[in-house]
Amino acid sequence: MFYLIITIVLGINLAWYLISDYWLRHDLKNYPIARKYTRIALVLWMLIIFIPIISATLGLGNPLESGPWLWTSALYLWIGAILLWMLGMGIVAITIWGFKYYNKYFNNKEQQNEENLNNHLSRRQFVKLGLVATPPLIVSGASVATFFDKKNLNVRIIDLPVVNLPPDLEGYTITHLSDTHVGILTGRERIENIVQTANQLKSNITVITGDILDNNFDYMPDLIDFIGELKAEQGVYLCIGNHDKIYDANKWVNTVRNAGFNLLLDESTIIDTGSTPIKLLGIDFSYSELQDLKNIRRAVEYTNTPGNSLKLLLTHHPHAFDAAVQANIPVTLAGHTHGGQLALRMGEDYELFNAGNYLFRYVGGIYKKEGNSLFVHRGSGDWFPLRAGVPTEVVQLRLVAQS
């Protein structure tokens, strides 16, 4: 499967290069200097893209792991962009060829003089050159933007209303992290920033709601260091996400548990707060609401429930909230959505557009249903190096009684 994907990616890139080079040679033939340097730029761009792919495929190592972050960002963005752009180039090319043959066979008028002038680009040539130049320019610009934005880690302190909250838990604090995606894009520097920021909040507990690892098990030592450096008065607790399971779910679970961390996998634990206890539950990742409900019930039964305890659920996918409502779990914390990743905002509370709304019922922030509360985290790290309007965050939740 890996080599099939690599072959497809390389094939699409090669097709883009050949089409682009043909257009440059053909449409800039009257501009030899411009043609020379644009073709050189095209070759250099392809080398930037191809070197890490070919190197990793041949087993020579991945230069992105130690290379500049901009290089990594450009490659990730390019692979996504080029798939869409090839479709666009194909549509434009078919349209251009259609008009060309229409004019040739059905239009008896002579072509306009501007098509034959040697010192002007025709509209058709200009469109094609734009198609060649736009993807590298957009990807380069986006990479530069993400480079400067990746150090912006928002700290949000949020009151989370809870129905029938025991008075002695009023103001109880939870540092919530999620979707750190420890790996190429969330490296040691960003991890240390997350740890330092989280520890400075000095919450009662710290939780991570999944996707702690991106997908490469080589970064597990960094993940172990990351979790081990987190501090909270009453403990640090985790649940698993879909990215944590990509490489080898059992190996990931065993590694985390052997390190002595509090991973809740369809399990629960009782947190002694000094007053009203909290029954903290964590469930396995699932796309099925029916499976979520089974997992929650299994977690509830894992430990005896003190009569006055507050139940709080950790889940990666926010859609598990619907199952939590059925199971009468007052508070659910989730991640997974990255807040939609791309959003157009006017202030903190008003969105004109959010890509996550087309994928998820719960995208980011606080949701209420039948008296139960959900908070969806926007993510502390990245698996894809492009965010707009949805910065990474470290959140401190303060439990407050819902009036």
TrEMBL record:
Gene Ontology terms: biological process: lipid A biosynthetic process
InterPro entries associated with the record: Calcineurin-like_PHP, Metallo-depent_PP-like, Metallophosphoesterase_sf
Chain ranges of the Calcineurin-like phosphoesterase domain: 173-339
Record-level GO cellular component terms: membrane
UniProt superkingdom: Bacteria
Residues annotated as transmembrane: 6-24, 36-55, 75-99, 126-148
Protein species of origin: Candidatus Syntrophocurvum alkaliphilum
PANTHER family xref list: PHOSPHODIESTERASE YAEI (PTHR31302:SF31), TRANSMEMBRANE PROTEIN WITH METALLOPHOSPHOESTERASE DOMAIN-RELATED (PTHR31302)
This protein's name: Calcineurin-like phosphoesterase domain-containing protein
Keywords, ordered alphabetically: Hydrolase, Membrane, Metal-binding, Transmembrane, Transmembrane helix
Gene Ontology terms for molecular function: metal ion binding; UDP-2,3-diacylglucosamine hydrolase activity
